[in-house]
Amino acid sequence: MIRTTIISILFSGLALNAQKNIYESHKFDELSENHEVLAILPFLTHLELKKSSFDEDVKSLEEKEGYAVQNALETYFSKRKKKKKFSVEFQNTKDTKAILAQKGIDYQNIDVYTIKQLSKILQVDGIISGTLDLNILLSKGVPTEFSFTDYFSGDSNYGRIGVKISDGDTGKLLWKYEKQINKKTGKNTTDLIDKMMKLAIRKFPYERERKRDRKNK
Predict the structure, then answer these.
(1) Do the Cβ atoms of 69 and 189 come closer than 8 Å?
(2) What are the residues facing 195 on neighbouring strands?
(3) Could you tell me the sign of the dihedral formed by the alpha carbons of 95, 97, 98, 104, in that order?
(4) What pLDDT digit, counting tens, does each position of 192-210 carry?
(5) What is the pLDDT of residues 80-123, one digit of tens each?
(6) Nearest Cα to Cα of residue 106 among 137, 63, 45
(7) Quick check: pTM over 0.85?
């Protein structure tokens, strides 16, 4: 009974934190009124790994982690889209990568292009992008055993993720969600994205039910 209560409190805290970590532009409705297609970019990743010996260099590992988040977001949105939950479409990430490659844009130089430039190149109405700061390889999985000692010592914190949506025409930030990554947030990249988006989904601006409620106000 006590354990169930503790778990309930933890999940209530997660939901509350999800609300606090969300930003939405007051111009969202105005700027996104004609949005039909969004592109998902690989996340810009910064790794500070505790272990110094890996088969691959850090830059290569950062790229893999960035693409892993891109793929996980596409998977999540695809599942929700099948239930007709969104008012927009999401460009296939393989198409996104191919179009960018044709213009000589890849993970290593994508950060020198503006949102407006990328939106024009990809022919989309908006961009989903983000950052990832990690001290582990999230795509390979994290320990998920519950331990009060870890929470007090801080050893359960593995980094932070930030997801943002920007308007293609203006380049302006429309929506942003930031979250700390720890043992409670998911055992790997796909699990993390699935759980964090479920917590934020009631505040996700392209959710059909939410947009309907806003119009009725």
Answers:
(1) yes
(2) none
(3) positive
(4) 899 888 888 778 888 865 5
(5) 887 777 889 999 999 999 999 999 999 999 999 999 999 999 99
(6) 63
(7) no
The residue whose two tokens read 């297609």 is: 37
* Pairs from 19-26 (Cβ < 8 Å, separation ≥ 24): 19/203, 21/177, 21/178, 21/179, 22/175, 22/176, 22/177, 22/200, 22/203, 23/173, 23/175, 23/176, 23/177, 24/174, 24/175, 24/176, 24/203, 24/205, 25/172, 25/173, 25/174, 25/175
Determine the Cα–Cα distance for residues 107 and 67; give it in Å rounded to an integer.
9
Supply φ then ψ for residue 161, to 5 degrees: -125, 140
Q: How many residues in total does the chain contain?
A: 217
Spatial separation of the C-alpha atoms in residues 190 and 186, rounded to whole Å? 8
- Identify the burial level of 90 via C-beta atoms within 10 angstroms of its C-beta, where 0-12 means exposed, 13-18 middle and 19 or more buried: buried
| Under 8 Å between Cβ of 29 and 212 | no
Distance CA 147, CA 170 (A): 46
Compute the CA torsion angle 26, 27, 33, 36 (nearest 10 deg): -90
Nearest to 115 by CA among 165, 150, 72: 165
